[in-house]
Amino acid sequence: EAQVTQNPRYLITVTGKKLTVTCSQNMNHEYMSWYRQDPGLGLRQIYYSMNVEATDKGDVPEGYKVSRKEKRNFPLILESPSPNQTSLYFCASSLAGEDEAFFGQGTRLTVV
Amino acid sequence: GDSVTQMEGPVTLSEEAFLTINCTYTATGYPSLFWYVQYPGEGLQLLLKATKADDKGSNKGFEATYRKETTSFHLEKGSVQVSDSAVYFCALSNTGTASKLTFGTGTRLQVTL
User: Fold this and answer.
1) What are the φ/ψ torsions at residue A90 (nearest 5 degrees)?
2) Which of A40, A92, A104 sits opposite B105 (nearest CB)?
3) How many CB pairs under 8 A join A and B?
4) Residue A98: what pLDDT?
5) Taking CB atoms and an 8 Å cutoff, what residues of chain A touch B97?
6) Which of A46, A69, A76, A88 has the smallest number of CB atoms closer than 10 Å to its CB?
7) Given CB atoms, is A74 within the 8 Å cutoff of chain B?
8) How far is A107 from B43, CA to CA, in rounded Å?
9) Residue A42 phi, psi dihedral angles, 5° rounding
10) Would you state the pLDDT for residue A86?
11) φ, ψ at B15 (rounded to 5°)
12) What contacts A62, CB < 8 A, 6 or more positions away?
């Protein structure tokens, strides 16, 4: 089944404790992105990648890192999480040249 | 920069009522426009899209027409069902791809019997 898989689905952590949210897609898509969803703000793009070893900042990159060492994986790294990073995070992927994005089920992160 | 403005929710309707969710946008050039739907506990999925002026996107009884003169892309459905209860997001892409989507704030729809 074609899908974007995020892990974990739910995470509660403490301020300053490094964490990684994984994202994997099995559709051989070139493009991958991370978004965060907050009430009243919709989805905002954090980082995106157009291919292996090619990443770029989105609209709200502060406090996040990403890497794209393999085409299928695009992990989101929070080196020192803070409470303002409490949010619902979505990974998305798409084919180069296509305009439909496929989303994972989301990761609900709480930083206390 | 690009932006999308959606009507505030939540919208509560009885089953079989007519639905309109307003969406307007600001963008340079000729963006593609989308409606995504998010069912409870799930990720977003594409509902419909339109890539040029006067195009009408349609799917599952939902429709939206790309109106360049009013920079709008309002979502409509003639008769909603309880199963349509979800959050609806209007979005645009100015890159011709899905590498960067600009989303509205989302509108929650609740349909009751």
Assistant:
1) -125, 135
2) A40
3) 67
4) 85
5) 31, 94, 96-99
6) A69
7) no
8) 10
9) 70, -150
10) 98
11) -55, 140
12) none
Q: Which residues of A touch B96 (CB under 8 A)?
A: 97, 99
What secondary structure does DSSP assign to B65-93, as a single string? E-BTTTTB--EEESS--GGG-EEEEEEEE
Q: Each residue of B92-102: pLDDT tens digit?
A: 998 878 788 99
User: Comparing C-alpha atoms, which of A72, A75, A76 is closest to residue A3?
Assistant: A72
Tokens standing for residue B81: 């069902």
Query: Which residues in chain B show pLDDT less than 50?
Result: none
Q: How far is B72 from B33, CA to CA, in rounded Å?
A: 9
Task: Write the single-letter amino acid at A30.
Answer: E
Identify the closest residue of chain B to A32 by CA–CA distance: B99
Q: Do A42 and B44 touch (CB under 8 A)?
A: no
Q: What is the pLDDT of residues A61-107, one digit of tens each?
A: 999 999 999 999 999 999 999 999 999 999 999 998 888 899 999 99
A51-73 pLDDT, tens per residue?
Answer: 999 999 999 999 999 999 999 99
